[in-house]
Amino acid sequence: MEAGGRNTIMRVQSLVQAGLAEIPSQYIQPHENRPIVKKENGVGVMDIPVIDLFGFDLNHRDLVRKAIGEACREWGAFHVTNHGVPIELMNQIRSVGLSFFNDCPFKDKLKYACDPTSAASEGYGSKMLVDNCSVLDWRDYFDHHTLPLSRRNPSRWPNFLPNYREVVGKYSDEMKVLAQKLLGLISESVGLPSSCIEDSVGEFYQNITISYYPPCPQPDLTLGLQSHSDMGAITLLIQDQVEGLQVLKESQWFTVQPLCDAIVVILSDQTEIITNGKYKSAQHRAITNSSRPRLSIATFHDPAKTRKISPAFQLVNESSPLYREVNYEDYVSSWYTKGPEGKRNIDVLRINC
Ligand SMILES: O=C(O)CCC(=O)C(=O)O
Description:
By secondary structure, the chain is of the alpha+beta class. Helix content is 27%, strand content 19%. The chain has helices at 12-17, 61-74, 87-103, 106-109, 164-189, 196-201, 269-274, 328-338, 344-347; strands at residues 50-52, 77-81, 123-125, 140-147, 205-213, 225-228, 234-239, 245-249, 252-255, 263-267, 284-286, 294-302, 308-309, 326-327. The strands form three sheets. The chain has an eight-stranded mixed beta sheet. Strands 6-11-8-9 form a four-stranded antiparallel beta sheet, with no helix packed on it. A two-stranded antiparallel ribbon has the order 13-14. The longest helix has 26 residues, at 164-189. Mean pLDDT is 92; it is low at 1-7. Bound molecules: 2-oxoglutaric acid. 2-oxoglutaric acid (AKG) binds next to strand 5, strand 7, strand 11 and strand 12.
């Protein structure tokens, strides 16, 4: 079956609803990228750390900073609890997001279809075939442009539920506050002034992507989302109860167990550059399963396109910057033209690489 040629509007959910027993060839990953689908996570299997933020109480700041430093060095990703984001709001965005995929008729969903010819365009989409070599993701998504406010236009978001737009707007505001506080702690934990990473990034360009991974008849052949690191500064992700997110550590993939009230923090490439490689952005991907759909909501915090990013001077001396300065616009354009594929985009900025 044709699935997602340049001009075809095809969504993974529609393929599944058509009752496929086998996935179309465009979704089949080369052997080396296929997931090992385990029945259960064994006892003692490692997972990203869970860090209690104690509501950012100053009495716990040293402890929290230390835990964050370790998590950033070892994983580039960690869960946070007691983060201050209302749990009710997290449940609401999961609920309205799921309802869009489950309850909104396909023809209505298509009113919000994103422009497949433009990178990161807002709206309802699935990965399109860029060339004959690329493999499609087993995922549909809705991408919202939420910050700065000049980019936020809720009339481009679904309104079949009366509270959809309001929930997304409130969630965006809460995530921004959390991202600022976390970047402060991350800066301090690597020995930088609290505002250093945020000052380098400048005003946040924030996007919220709700991803829907339909059940897949052959989960061992495909990926929900190919391996990548995020291009911006910091990503905050929540998921439902269905596991699927995996993080790479020392060449091994680890599944992140869903923790309903926690938020997953994922360090992105510009933070790796600013910290001069002391902290690494997390390479991650999503796998699928044959029985249950999965929903995740990723909130990306990126620099403006005009921003130039380089290692913080406090972390380099004359001879040791590990990354070249980059124009964020060039970084984004390389990410979209070459494709994410692991960490290939940041790797080319490495000096002596
Ligand atoms: O669904 C997930 O858990 C991962 C989502 C993600 O990595 C992304 O949207 O970039």
